[in-house]
Write a structure and sequence with these properties.
With about 200 residues, the chain is mainly α. The protein is built from 8 helices and no strands.
């Protein structure tokens, strides 16, 4: 009986893995390249964590722009008018302003440690005679990243809801949102472990 159940469990796991790979449109030939990317990610996380957190922040911005672009036709269908470039710009500015006005909640959620490190790094470069970067500029950049993340969640949620209403598979979209959350959490963890937070600096 035990020997019969073990192959059954193994086949179910393989079926789940194969289904997930097909949902993500990942072929078996892509697995070696994914392994190389994962190994490189681990290596650079240990050797150069600042590069990884920079790539993570850039990924959040590009993911948000991609999901906003996919959600635009859906929003146009709901509101019955064409969305222009300045409408998107207004949404980005509004979300950034909200993160600036609601300063304490935004900083308490994510990227506060990295923002403090970047501010300390800029102040150190300024005191050493380098080019000065105002702390307000760094705060604006991080609020822009936070605003982009909020737009990502909103646009992806709308797109997933629309896919579910049409009977399409919405799970890959949720997986991408979960990936965005994982990137944010990973950035905060890397910042805490390798760079340090709140006055510690850790940028030695």
């Amino acid at each position: 009986m035990t020997t019969y159940l073990e192959p059954t469990k193994t086949s179910k796991k393989q079926h789940l893995v194969n289904r997930w790979l097909s949902q993500q449109k990942i072929k078996l030939g892509d697995l070696p390249f994914l392994g190389i990317c994962l190994a490189s990610l681990i290596y650079f996380t240990i050797r150069n964590p600042l590069l990884i957190v920079t790539l993570g922040c850039s990924s959040i911005v590009f993911l948000s722009l991609w999901h906003v672009a996919k959600a635009i036709p859906i929003v146009e269908r709901y509101i019955g008018c064409k969305i222009r470039f300045w409408h998107i710009t207004t949404a980005i500015i509004t979300s950034t302003a909200l993160c600036s006005v609601l300063d304490s909640p935004a900083n308490a959620v994510f990227l506060s440690g990295l923002e403090e490190f970047m501010t300390e790094l800029a102040e150190g470069a300024s005191s050493a005679g380098g080019e000065a970067i105002e702390p307000e500029v760094i705060e604006l950049i991080f609020n822009l990243i936070r605003g982009a993340f909020l737009l990502l969640v909103a646009a992806a949620s709308l797109f997933a809801y629309n896919q579910a209403q049409q009977g399409n598979d919405w799970r890959p979209i949720v997986t991408q949102v979960a990936l965005a959350f994982a990137i944010v959490i990973a950035i905060d963890v890397i910042t805490f472990l390798f760079i340090g937070t709140g006055g510690g600096g850790g940028g030695a």
